[in-house]
Amino acid sequence: GHEHGEGDSVIFKGGADIQGDLQWSWDLKNGNRSTLQLPPAQWYEDATTEEIVLTIDNAGCIDTTTTSLIV
Question: How many angstroms separate the CA atoms of 59 and 25, rounded?
Answer without folding.
Answer: 14
